[in-house]
Amino acid sequence: MTSPERPLPDGCPGALTTHPAADGPLARIRLPGGVLLPRQIQMLAQAAAELGDGTLELTSRGNIQVRAVSDPDALASRVAESGLLPSESHERVRNILASPLSGRVDGITDVRALVGELDEGICAADELAELPGRVLFAIDDGRGDMCGLEPDFGVYAQADGSYALLLAGLDSGVRIGRGAVVSTLLDCAAAFVELRRSEWRLAELDGGADRVIERLGLDAGPVLTLPAPVEVPPIGWLDQVDGRVALAAGLANGILDARLAEFLAAIDRPLIVTPWRSLIVCDLDEEPAEQVVRVLAPMGLIFDEASPWIRVSSCTGSPGCAKSQADVRADLAAAVDARMTPRDERQHWSGCERRCGRPKGEVTDVVATGIGYRVS
Questions:
Q1: Which residues touch 20 (CB under 8 Å, ≥6 apart)?
Q2: What residues pair up with 164 in beta bridges, in sequence order?
Q3: Among candidate residues 376, 319, 321, the one with its CA nearest the CA of residue 352
Q4: How confident is the model at residue 5 (pLDDT cuts 50, 70, 90)?
Q5: 320, 328 Cβ separation under 8 angstroms
Q6: Predicted structure pTM score
Q7: Contacts of 314 (CB under 8 A, 6+ apart)
Q8: 316 Cβ contact list (under 8 Å, min separation 6)
Q9: Can you tell me the distance from the alpha carbon of 277 to that of 273, in angstroms, rounded to the nearest whole number?
Q10: What average pLDDT is seen over the chain?
Q11: Is the dihedral of CA 115, 168, 57, 293 positive or negative?
Q12: How far is residue 349's CA from residue 250's CA, in Å, rounded to a whole number?
């Protein structure tokens, strides 16, 4: 009789365990809810300039990556001192997405407090350190922007005050109250740890959602058809419910230059990294908001929803990835400059068939072949 297959070592990069990319060690810093405080933005900007390649990569999970890290230990120390590394044992499993504008613009309810409570709960549960680094938590405030991101464990706020429990990217039919959101998500994640063998995501586990529901004794009813993935993220001037302003901006290739990051830190307002590889500067008065647009738009922040960069994305490509067959980012930038990308559809450019970083939903793939690109 063969023994059960056990999980392989987790190769997901973190702040403590870097990935040996072709251009040097790659570090990934988790940002639950995508939130960065000004001092943390300043730290990352300086770290990218002094220890990395001078840029910060925004990821499709609202995290930050630093490439070509010259001193991983020094970077980890800075990250920890800034408060972005509350648990060394859990640092790679703190993948928590939340509606970026929750509590500020639209949405059924404010879920910001739930993000902090869930992060604390994950770090406090010893068994959850065994979660794969690919597992994703999500908290949707009712607007439907997180539903299409296929979280392993998530909730979707409903108008009646309940939350739909999302498992493996789908509505499970289970409904819970706000007070049970965090404990239920933690219990579901713990059940996955117990049930998994070599699976990295709940959807890979045969009957995973049903097995979690059965294991926890949850009652499931009719299921919802979830909203489609967001095609165009919030961009531009957004009026907050408190009378202040949020500025949402895109970035070419999702890359934030260290110098631009320092300017963002100087604004002295919270910053949110979104899962669409964009940024939101929050809680601005109108006059400072106008100044931010005037100063930072020429430096690379994109406040125009019609910009082609809002609908295109790419993988790292070469020279950062050894598997890539092209310098994807440079080729995409050239295509955008030449107005060769469509303005009415989403495209994702990839250096190989793995198509890393591909957004969810309807996306046209542009894949490098070694002798050009294939569009599919």
A1: 26
A2: 156, 175
A3: 321
A4: low
A5: no
A6: 0.95
A7: 253, 254, 328, 329, 332, 348, 349, 350, 357
A8: 21, 57, 324, 328, 329, 351, 356, 357
A9: 7
A10: 95
A11: negative
A12: 17
